[in-house]
Amino acid sequence: MNIAKKIMLGYGALLLVVFMHLIYSLSSLEEMNRINASITKMNAPTIERAERLAENLLGQDLYMRKLGILKDSASFKLLELKITEFDQLIEQIRSINSPLDSVKELAENGAAFREKIAASYGSMKSAFALSKEQKKEFEKSLQEVVDLSSRVAVQVRLDQNVKTDLSTNIGRRAYRELLVVGFGSVLLAVGITLLFARYISRSVKHLKLSTRLVSESKFEEVQSLQTNDEFGEVSRSIAEMAKKIERLEKIHITCNPLSLLPGGLAIDDNIGNRLASGLLTAVCILDLDNFKVFNDKYGYARGNDVIQATAAIITAVVKEKGAGEDFVGHIGGDDFIVVTDPKRYEDICKTIIKRFDEQIPLLYDSADRLQGAIVGKNRQGVEVVFPLMTISIAVATDQEGSISNPQVLSRRAAELKEYAKSMSGSVYVVDQRQYKAEENT
Question: What is the pTM assigned to this prediction?
Answer without folding.
Answer: 0.47
